[in-house]
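Hi, here's the filled form for the chain we discussed.

Project: internal
Contact: R.S.
Residues: 642
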Amino acid sequence: MISLDNLTVSYGGWTLFDGVSFLINEKDRIGLVGRNGAGKTTLLRIITGEQQPTSGAVTMNGECTIGYLPQQMKVADTTTLKAETEKAFGEVLRLEAQIASLTAEIAERADYESPEYETLLHRLNEAQDRYHILGGETREADIEKTLLGLGFRRTDFDRATSEFSGGWRMRIELAKLLLSRPSIFLLDEPTNHLDIESIQWLEDYLKSYNGAVLVISHDRAFLDNVTTRTVELSLGRIYDYKVPYSKFVELRAERRAQLLAAYENQQRMIEKTEEFIEKFRYKPTKSNQVQSRIKQLERIERIEVEDEDNAALNIKFPPAPRSGQIVVEVKDAGKAFGEKRIFSGATFTIERGQKVAFVGRNGEGKTTMARMIVGELPATEGTIRTGANVNIGYYAQNQDDLMDGDFTVYDTLDRVAVGDIRTRLRDILGAFLFRGEDIEKKVRVLSGGERSRLAMARMMLEPRNLLVLDEPTNHMDMRSKDILKRALQKYDGTVIVVSHDRDFLDGIVDRVYEFRDGGVREYLGGIYYFLEKRKVESLQEIERRDAPAAAAPREASTGKLSYEQRKEQEKLLRRLRKAVETVEAELADVEKQIADYDRKFAAATEYDEAGYAAYEELKRRYDHLMHEWEKASYELEITENA
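And the returned structure, exactly as it came back:
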């Protein structure tokens, strides 16, 4: 269906990937994996035609259509949720008009045996077949099913798209993409803005989809549930495995062991050959043999092995200082922002050594509760208290702002490290993707993702007995997540994790608190126990849940606002939306500049040092703006009716 032939992408003297070739067949389910910076997103952009390779070509059959979901995109905000979603059926609407026109023309004709009449019938059949393939007859039901599956309520359908926060607006684009039914989906981190329920719905949709899927994701469970083939980008080359991700990890380990053995053998041979050349270089009787060995070395195809620092695998949190038996006690707690109630009546106790997860739909209050526990937000009602000798370590997306921008990456850890762990700071930094010269960078020049990873690495050095982690894996690759997961499993303190990553939570948490419909409910068991229980309960209550009246309690209360309160709330929402729009506009401008450099570098014949420095600065600017967008979107999300 799509053929990638000898693709090479070079930027001046640096080659991102070299001679990459593989086929994407109908109904393939491919996970595209590799380290951050390996070129995965670049490969998707080349397939879509947004970026041109330095050499090589992408060919596809004439009927192939592509549905591409980048990590971020500009979302329309001039219509309602349903009207915007219906734009996915543009071709269906055109076909409807064509079918009506052809039907009317055929009804008026009586020349049943003529070639013209036969042509009209043929065109009508083609249009009807295409209409059926695109789901024209069921589009209303498909729109409803897709929007509900992605977490929207029926009461949201007529809301203006401008009222939704950034994460929910990305879901609108995902809904349009799914409903457009392309030949192949190209999905770049599609689970980033989804909660667990929506991720599971998307998995089921993609598994039964009639086309092909190529997905980039750091969600291991999502990859295992959706894909049957794994393509790895490593050191600029492609390695194709006809297995899901977890099986790929096993096979890759076997391949790496074989490759490492071959590499070591080759290095010994090269070393001996070089010794021979040096020893006999100036002996005339050996000149022929020396020249033969030199040519032999020149002909050797050098084996490369991707660096993997196994020393970092044993990193662990420092022992937790002993706290009281009761670590967190929540009694009838609730939180409202103005007249907008997030949740109420939350009552639970977390004891020493327990590891719990906060899960639920976006906007239901998971992060809000975490911030209330650490003391960043006061409770509107009820009480939240921490126990005796509780020392909290808090990780959230904005905690990186607390680090000193004038310190280097290494110094940031060195300032808080004590004891033997000081000898392993480079290992810890390597585990969180800081390698080589990265550790000498100043904190102020790091991207949003880099600063978040550094904040997590620093937390692993400080002795705490309660860790509150809000989406800790958002900027991590698979290996970093595994290292953090093992460290949390061995940690002897108390842990609260806000996350939608099922594989990460599995094996860490022993109870789950679900934030849903304005309340908090406890499930005694791990994440998969919760998911099984939730599936049964969802089947039992699906009619009530999906009914139009099934709005959250906070929605019912919005009509009670006074005129002055409504004015203040609208003023606040306008300010927050303006902040989000401003950052989005800057992002769009930076994206355009980066794309311009991509095209320039793709056509470059020599290395442009100044241009590449400007390019790297733009990428850092982009990451910083993305961080600001995430914060602004979150503030908007908790203020709106999510």
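Let me know if anything looks off before we file it.
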